[in-house]
Write a structure and sequence with these properties.
disordered N terminus, transmembrane helix, single chain, transport, mainly alpha, globular
Length: about 350
């Protein structure tokens, strides 16, 4: 029996035609890609601009003339709550929004009360971060705050039973060393800081605030992740509404504790200007951006966004702020933090 062979030219023609006629990517895939990278660009810009703007807002006036941190955080939580409600209304209509709130929040009080724990910690965390940026430059804050990755990893192992690979443990060690290098005292800083003992004290306050906020961020983030995984039927926006509702309550409570007497004499909006309102809007957008990244992106891309944000904050701090003098130890520490962030995410 004889088999008729197909010429190479024809077979190659068939191969080319078959490959060229491959179906294009569906529009849903294209839109999801746009959403993924759009969310990452948004959170990179939001994080960078928030840190720089917040730092500028605390530097432009003396502590006695500056706005109250507690009131700014309270307003940002209200704005975040309204944004989440608006998104849910757009997705489900107003009647659908009311039905979802009744079904998922009012009729499930035990589930809602579980959100109180991360809400309280988020509120403390936000106040600590305002305190940190009052006492630290934006670049040092950005790099040092990556210490929260170590705390998050430890709490993930404890609460979520996540096993860390040898590579991830090495990345955490590298991150710790990088943060230490960023905070390492040097002659360049000593010359400038020795003229003011108060400046040394404020830097210590900022560092303590970052460490404490890293612990609150790590635990609250892992705890919230555990709640999301245990109740997958609930919408992410419903969870955010629950979260911001409690955050509003706790933020108002902190106003009464910390600044009630000063607000009575100076007013709720004392020290507010255009920059303050921009800080509030950016702070409110932060929660929305994180929600979008959680939904549409992954940890590797989020780590990339964090790295870009650190680089941008460092560049702008060098160019526009006089309180930041980068040294060799800072550059080395920043490089180690960036590398460890990538290594841990891979």
């Amino acid at each position: 029996m004889m088999f008729k062979s197909v010429p190479a030219s024809k077979s190659s023609k068939f191969a080319i035609s078959s490959s060229s006629s491959s179906p294009p990517l569906p529009s849903s895939c294209t839109s999801s890609l746009y959403l993924k990278y759009g969310a990452l660009i948004l959170i990179t810009l939001q994080t960078t601009v928030l840190v720089l703007t917040l730092r500028y807002s605390r530097k432009q006036s003396s502590p006695n003339e500056s706005y109250f941190n507690s009131t700014a955080i309270f307003i940002s939580e209200i704005l975040k709550f309204l944004c989440c409600c608006f998104v849910l209304i757009v997705q489900n209509s107003f009647s659908g929004f009311i039905h979802a709130v009744q079904k998922e929040i009012l009729y499930k009080p035990k589930e809602s009360l579980k959100i109180a724990v991360p809400s309280f910690l988020y509120t403390i965390q936000n106040n600590l971060l305002f305190l940190a940026l009052t006492n630290l430059d934006a670049a040092t804050y950005q790099v040092t705050y990556q210490f929260k990755i170590i705390i998050t990893a430890l709490f993930s192992k404890w609460l979520l039973r996540k096993d860390l690979s040898l590579k991830q443990w090495f990345a955490l060690f590298l991150l710790m060393f990088g943060v230490i290098m960023v905070q390492w005292p040097n002659e360049k800083n000593m010359v400038h800081s020795s003229t003011s003992h108060q400046r040394n004290e404020s830097k210590l306050i900022g560092l303590v605030a970052i460490i404490l906020s890293s612990f609150t961020s790590g635990f609250s983030g892992v705890y919230f992740e555990k709640l999301l995984k245990s109740s997958k039927s609930q919408s992410l926006w419903i969870k955010n509404i629950q979260l911001t509702t409690f955050c509003c309550f706790f933020s108002f409570f902190l106003i009464l504790m910390n600044d009630y007497k000063n607000i009575l004499t100076k007013g709720f909006f004392f020290g507010y200007n255009q920059v303050t309102y921009l800080v509030i809007i950016l702070q409110a957008l932060g929660g929305i951006c994180v929600s979008l990244v959680v939904k549409y992106a992954d940890n590797i891309l989020k780590g990339f966004a964090t790295t870009i944000s650190i680089i941008l904050s460092t560049i702008f701090s060098i160019c526009f702020f006089e309180d930041f003098l980068p040294t060799a130890s800072f550059y080395l520490g920043t490089l180690l933090v960036i590398v460890s962030t990538f290594l841990y995410s891979l």
